Fold:
Amino acid sequence: MVASTPHEEDTVTRPCWDRLEEWAQAEAGAYLDAGLLPRPTLLYFEGEQATLYARDDISDTTPPGADASLRWNQLFGVGMVIHPEGVAVATPTRLRTDDDGMLVGEAEGEAAVYVGWARRRDGAEPEQGGVILTYGVDDRGGVRWSDRHELSEAGPLAPLLNATITGRWLQTDGGSRGGDQADISRAGLVYGLSRFGVSVGVARDWYARYGLDEPINPRHVRPEDRRRAHRFWQAHPSPTGASS
Amino acid sequence: MTPHAHLIATLLVETTDQRCLTAASRPPGLRDGADALSELAMLAAALDWRTGALAIPVRLRDLRHDEIEDSRTLITTLERQLDGAVRMTAQLVATGDAAAAAPHEIPMQAVDPAASPVAALLFDAVVRVEQAPPPHQVIAVLRSWGHLIAGDDDLPDVDRRTLGRDRHRVHRLARELGRRNRPVARIETANRPGVPANLPPDFVPACPL
Structure:
């Protein structure tokens, strides 16, 4: 007997802009069915097609006291150089439902999945929105989706969602970030993020269109990956002719 | 959850032509060796596999009672889809004394493969960028290091003339593999690579390394 895996039902989990909530429920449900916490997941869209998928694999093992916003910046990191038309995020959250203003602990809220999205297309109104879907897990481990709270705007991650589609990022380090990025290829950025537990997948036909087939500068690669990188870019020379 | 270094890991691989191969890892203590798990993973990398499973005895720390529990086995399974994507599952199974005492009371626990160092190692090995050495070389080298390997077919003869060279090559690859995916201390959990398995259909890992 094998535990259920994510993406067992392809028709449900194939991400699509019109069915973001279903996608988030399927994505989270696959983890919840296996008794695991869903993990922060990001989708980029060009038109109606989902093109890039990023997932934070180690969010729940981040040591206490670590900078949580750093994890979010890492998850949204690819968006800093790829300006997609649309972006959607799904992440586990807690919903506090008592109205008397008493602070209940973060852990005491109702378990939920937050879905937020933002899109900006040429010749169309920019759209954004968010929704919080609460769920319960019964004794046998089954997931029951209960409530749906629509948010008036994109919700708590709106700044990051908007920065992704506009390409305007807050410079908190005196503008040095742009300088650091200047000589790193997109593939190099994805490589760097993957060393910190961010898994990035790309739709097959967008691999080259996003420029992810450009070689990585060997100086940006850790020593144990260098020989592998060298071999790979030798076997797959870049179509743009950039030097490795 | 830490791999138990003094117990033996078992790898079961079914190749695309529906032949099975089983490998049990060598005991520790090989001088200058890479770790036994990385060496086993090299076998998975070399074979043209369709499904595979790696079983490793692990110890769990019960945080409520602060005691260490033996007799659990972490089983990580791999399955190659038709489109080439890799699906991974991981689960904890009670074995040994615990299972004998209460066979039905301890349920299997699913483990997130993306949060498991063993799954990260296996995934890294099988989604190989470079060509691993041919399987008969890896099998010969691993046997010479003390791994027990059995298969449906007769195992190939060992070519003594090239064994030294192959050992060097497999060892170097296994050491790099282990170094990339070294299980790290708690403070360094953020330095573990992600596992780009279980992606949506028609998606490929964005970084080939």
In short: Chain A has a mean pLDDT of 78. The two ends of chain A are 46 Å apart (CA to CA). Strands of chain A lie at 41-46, 49-56, 86-95, 110-119, 127-137, 143-151, 198-203. DSSP finds seven helices and seven strands in chain A.
